[in-house]
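Now for one specimen:
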Amino acid sequence: MPANNYNNLRMYFLVFFGMDSDEYGNNYQEIVDSSIIIDGISNKLIEEIDEFIKRHPDNESAIPAFQALNYPEVGDVSAFPPSLIEFLRWLSVYLKRKRTSATP
């Protein structure tokens, strides 16, 4: 995967964490749960999150790379608690857990 080809990740954050994110929920878990109801769980999205973390394992490299994907629509990604990398790790694990629990 080319270093700048994170189409699923970019679109996910533009849609669910962009300007209208409050329409999907009041906190990150509610927003992610809403995204699952609307779009399902994308294996490609999970793969791209994991690849992004692998290429940018710390906030110093991840924040500018992520801003380049989504700025200005998502805003300041350094504000994701407790940090962008920790948030992306949580998101990957959460989506994998939801995918596993949805499998019969």
Notes: The radius of gyration is 13 Å. Residues 7-102 form one domain.
